[in-house]
Structures are given as C-alpha cells and as structure tokens.
Amino acid sequence: MTTYVLVPGAWIGGWAYAEVADLLRAEGHEVHAVTLSGLDGGGDAASIDLETHIADVVGVIGDREDVVLVGHSYAGMVITGVADRVGERLAKLVYLDSAPFENGESMLDFSGPIPNVDGRFPFPSFEALSQDAGIDKDTYDVLSTKAVGHPYGSYAQPLRISDKEPTYERVVIACDDFRGLVATGMPRFQQFVAPVWKRVDIDTGHWPMITTPKELAAVLNAL
C-alpha cells in the first residue's frame, strides 16, 4: 500500500481528484486529496499566503512515511516548500503539469500580474484559460461549477527553501501545457532529464484529473 497526498492547483479543491482518489483506493492505497486553505470559498483570503498552503499539506502528511506527494500547476510551488520542510517523509515528489520553483521566487514572478479582487484571484474566463492552457469548454464547465477565487497572497509571497539535497524520487507528469512550455525553451522546463527525473507524458490538457482520471490514476499507481 502507498500513501498518496494529492494537492490541486489554483481555484480548485480536493474534489477535483475524486475519481483519481477512488481508483487509487480501489488498488488498496491510502489517498488524501487536499483542499488548501481558502479553496473551499471560505476563510479570510487576506490572511492566506503560500506558507499557509505549505502548512496545510505538512499537516496532512503528519507522521506518515514514504508518501507520494503530488502537486498540480500552482501546487508545484506548494509541494516544493513541503518537500523542503518534511522531505524525509516522502518517497516521491510528483509535479503534475508543473515544475519546482527556486528560493525567493513567487508565483507572480512566473505568471506576471494577476487581478486582485477582495484578496482573491478570480477564476478566469473560458477565453483566457483556453488561450493560456488549452482548456476545452466541457472541462471549463466542470471546473467553473466549483472553482473559487484563489487567495492572492499565495501568489504574491516568495517561496523560502533551503539547499537540502533531495532524498526522494522526483517525477514530472507532462501534459499538453507542460510540453508546450518545454517547447518554448524556458530554462525552468529543460531540467527534467533522467536519471535525476522520471518523466511520464499524458496526452491531455492541463487538468488531467478531470479529463483523463483513469490514465492519471494508472500512472500514479505505477510509479
């Protein structure tokens, strides 16, 4: 049995992993799909920052050992911080259509300016997401029914990590969005080469837990 901790990206909660989690549990695994602070639509957004989200996941891991920690999109920033705090508890660190960040970087350094409406980054329009992440209308409709404004502070706060040497296996699951960024030549996305990294490609859009949950579960189960 493996323990999986699944962390969603911006605007969405653990609900997005529901089918993936059920499929992994059917294989006998322990699965925790995390809803980060503020991503249930509640809480004071102004009090939520990146450290809050890192602490959320550290709390879920607790005293568990040999955890497979998965972070999607924005959560690549979160799990990078978590691995710095409790890396000794991880068996694998998995970036799902995402990448690690460096000490001192914030999500705003990557995304550029974003709207701030009452302390939240609103869920973008279909037109904006279809241009940036290649989302189709069906997937957008699924996400938009439960998506909430993302706490702005988690994008604005820089990541603070040490220079610890990783003791866990590093994995990237590359979907269409990731492969598109690799093609741009952006240095951040050129590092994922063996033997340091294991890379698995899935031919789908940026939200594989919604579009290809069976394939994503199979990939995670086989890690």
Automatic annotation (TrEMBL):
Keyword hit for Hydrolase: yes
Classification via Gene3D superfamilies: alpha/beta hydrolase
Molecular function per GO: hydrolase activity
Domain AB hydrolase-1, residue spans: 5-218
UniProt-listed InterPro entries: AB_hydrolase_1, AB_hydrolase_fold, Sec-Metab_Biosynth_Hydrolase
Keywords: Hydrolase
Protein name per the record: Alpha/beta hydrolase family protein
Protein's organism: Allokutzneria albata
